[in-house]
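REQUEST ID: PR-0412
SUBMITTED BY: lab tech R.K.
PRIORITY: routine
TASK: structure prediction, single protein chain
INPUT:
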Amino acid sequence: MFSYPTVRASFLFLAIAVAGLLVADIAITTANPWRDLGQFFLGVVTPNFFSTEGLLTALLRTVAFGFVGVTLGSFFGFLLALLYRFMPVRIFCAFIRAIHELFWALIFLQFFGFHPLTGVLAIAIPYAGIFAKVYSEILDESDPEPAQLLPKGTHAIAAFLYARIPDCWVQLRTYTAYRLECGLRSSAILGFVGLPTLGFYLESSFSQGMYSDAGAMLILFYVLIATMPLWVRPKVLPVYILAAPFFLGEGFPIVWGNVERFFTEDIVPAPLRNGEGLAAFSSWLGDVMVSEALPGIWNTVVLTQIALVATGILSLLAFPLISKHFGGPVRRTSGHVFLVIARSTPEYILAYILLQLWGPSMLPAVVALALHNGGIIGHLIGRQTNTIHLRPDAPQGFARYSWELVPRVYRSFLAFLFYRWEIIMRETAILGILGIYTLGFYVDSAIQNIQFDRAMILILITALLNIGVDILGRYIRRKLALQTMPTC
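STATUS: complete
OUTPUT:
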């Protein structure tokens, strides 16, 4: 068994995660976590849809921010995809997508304030980098033959529009629709930094112990995501895109002097801003690295590796819930509902809820990351098993699971898991805003202390760490000959 590279790689990552558990802060610190958890579930089953006057407005603005941000991201991402073969463009796209939407929001809040532009750009910028990468891969895989059949002298733009785009239009449309769902999740969590989306009211309800109100907001969000195929139709999509900017709200006016000061003073390292020279700057940078960056990197990597393996385990346990090879229609329907809820709830919201119930530690973050990402991968692998035809005398029960299905889907499972690695790293870093000592904790602390120069250094380190994990993940997929595929 250990002669297979995929098995050796799996046990190596498992060993790293176990070692991480030995040094990680895994604990439940609240006095009565099960009572709090019971109250939360009671609030979910007894939702109060009429307690918050601004709830429907927040839901509408969540949709509006999502549509505007994803529209801008897809437009500029497509333009960047046309130039993606150039190394500077690839580096630029890798950098902007490596910074989480909440980090972008925290940056723009410092000079745009609570203006709709903050939320729109926080979604559009990283999504442009994501769209550029995926669109370029889709275009590169398109069939070149239709373009070769065009008459000689056909302009390159005409050949592109009439030959390449139609060939991959379905893939482009499908991925854009999928990314819109991700955009709605990103829009919801922007409320946790003060923007008027669903997360703002969810945080307020939880902080006041109003679980029925919070349950109502979560249910509305699930319904919004689950019914997207019904209300997001190609014929009405242009109407949504044109109308969305008018539902963003007005916010506070932008003070352009703050924008200028932010770029010319605030983010300039303090020693250079005060004219203290390179020696003082080196000392300042060393202090940032030792007291904030290195502890943040260590905790981010440890938490990421634990969450990655937990995601893999949960995915392997979850895919039978929707596989036709296990159970009947009722069980598969229940499993489908569970996975829809798990993958539709943003990791940030899950972590926030669990932190309120269990107290501050890495445990809520691990569970949140594993549930969300495990729900996504479990759903994809479960759908893949539905295309497998078993022989009539195939074993039943656990033997069917372990000897018939898992070996057939394991390579695809690893490909999805390593693709999610960089995404888990991004989410791990941002969960520091909730009080977990990852890089996001130190970024948020620096911003709260009006030390924007330190915050920008830490955000840059976060981006470089994410880029490094992405490169390592692609290297491992290539060495193991795993097929790559885009996912949220």
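NOTES: Residues 277-318 form the longest helix (42 residues).
REVIEWED BY: pending
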